[in-house]
Amino acid sequence: MSSTTVPKAVLYHSPESVWSSAVLLALEEKGYAEDEVDLKLVDLAKGENFSVSFLRLNLKGTVPTLVVPFKDSLSDDVESRYKAVTDPKAIVNLLDQSRSPLSRTRTTSTAPAPSLAPATVAFSAASNALLEILHAEEVSPDALILVNARDGASLKTLASKILPQVVGRQKALKECISEAEAGKVQASEKVKKFWRDKEADTAVLLAVLSAAEKEESALDSTEKVKRAEFFTKATGAWAAVKEALVKVNKELIGPYALGDQLSLVDISLAAWLRSVVLLAGAGPGDDGSTAVGKLEGFLGIGLPKDFQVVDVRRQETAAVSKLAGFWDAMSERASWKKTFV
Fold it and tell me: Is residue 255 reached through a cis peptide bond, with omega within 30 degrees of 0 on the bond before it?
């Protein structure tokens, strides 16, 4: 086996996945070369993450998914063996560990590989606590995208944005179920149940989105119940985000989560915060005070302005929230600009 055929990691990702963007940020921050990790796009709108071939890698059908060769199979003369890493936190942590002065991973990049791991036990505990908040299921940004509506008008807007994706998802799931029942594809009972459960959940969402153009008075009794349940779910999701936002802002040191040095938790926070800020109506080019301010207005809260930043144009300092300072610090980084701009 030649050196050009040494196995590489493969990252399955999607631009529709918030946590995929976190992994892309990590790749940039760690200085991986473009030829060190194969990037494979997964079309969520077509339900490619529900295919049998993808579920063999990740039975949850989620992205990002990183498939990596075992370290004892990296040699040219050893048959490659792989494992799939499906937890976004674990993927970022693995990328951090796999490219460092101490790692034995082959690398073609000459870029610096700064460690993202917290430097002390105390910082590690603080980082883990923040990561637990950000990755909690109830504040999942990918789930929030699907229920980001509070009233009839915003529901119409949401439907115009995501209805085609939801229709495509349901179509893919129905095809998977149909082909399995006809014996055209081999699937375990566990996989079949996964498809049926996902299709049932998708059907509920699709029913609400399909009736989005109807005024409340035009809905039948079933549609009214489903819309009310949808709004209740959306309200609960944003309430959870509000609680998480207050906790995170309180725990930040600034400008990054643990102070002056970028760390693992900042990768997740950057992706999460950008997603919820945009869902609240801010623009991707807004500065920190404007972006986080719009999020505060959307949630009906006011974060303490207890972090000092320097206004270069006015040659003076200004007090902003820690999250606003974090937004400004991250948005200036090359990784942010490459991943999001």
Answer: yes
Is the pLDDT confidence value at 49 over 60? yes
Q: Is the pTM of this model over 0.70?
A: yes
Cβ–Cβ < 8 Å for 70, 81? yes
pLDDT at residue number 113: 86
CATH class of the domain comprising 3-114: alpha beta
pLDDT in tens, 29-45: 999 998 899 999 999 99
The amino acid that residue 335 corresponds to is S
Separation between Cα atoms, residue 30 and residue 110, nearest integer Å: 11
| 38 neighbors 10 (Cβ within 8 angstroms) | yes
Alpha-carbon distance of 211 to 25, in angstroms, equals: 38
Instruction: Give start-end residues of each CATH 3.40.30.10 domain in the chain.
Output: 3-114
What does the chain come to in residues?
Answer: 341
User: Which residue has tokens 């349940």?
Assistant: 229
**Cis peptide, bond prior to residue 64, ω within 30 of zero:** yes
CA gap 141, 16 in Å, rounded: 11
d(CA 62, CA 159): 22
Identify which of 66, 74, 69 has the alpha carbon closest to the alpha carbon of residue 104. Answer: 74
pLDDT band at 184, cuts 50/70/90?
Answer: very high
Indicate the pLDDT class of residue 75, thresholds 50, 70 and 90: very low
Residue 266: which of 101, 13, 25 has the closest Cα? 25
pLDDT band at 71 (very low <50, low <70, confident <90, very high): low
- Contact criterion met (CB below 8 Å) for 94 and 110: no
- β-partners of residue 66 are 11, 85
Q: Are the CB atoms for 339 and 21 separated by under 8 Å?
A: yes
- Token pair of 326, please? 């974090």
Calpha distance 21→39 (Å, rounded): 12
